[in-house]
Amino acid sequence: MPMSPRQLPDLPVVDVLDEVKRALEHTGRGVVVAPPGAGKTTLIPLALLDESWLGEQRIVMLEPRRLSARAAARRMALPNPRRTQDWSGNPYRGGHRGDLDPATSA
């Protein structure tokens, strides 16, 4: 079930989610530039998960540090911890935490 704007925290990226979705639907790629704390890492992937155009494609996010990756995975698990465990993990040099589905990773 897609996330409704009512379920999303009031962060700056909420205002541009429709634009991001349209751009990704047409090009399949995107880079979002916004200040720290805007919701880029945690809200956009969650909002995209149930888009029909995503199909078998995956959402790949890169974080510069293990701490950032772990914090993002924990934050994304807050709305629905059980569902997020099915697709979230954070691989890093020397190992990984979480169970990664071969199709998606966060």
TrEMBL record:
InterPro entries with a match to the protein in the record: P-loop_NTPase
Keywords annotated in UniProt: ATP-binding, Helicase, Hydrolase, Nucleotide-binding
Region described as Disordered: 75-106
Presence of keyword Hydrolase: yes
MF term (GO), any: hydrolase activity
Superkingdom: Bacteria
Name listed for the protein in its UniProt record: ATP-dependent helicase HrpB
Organism of origin: Ilumatobacter coccineus
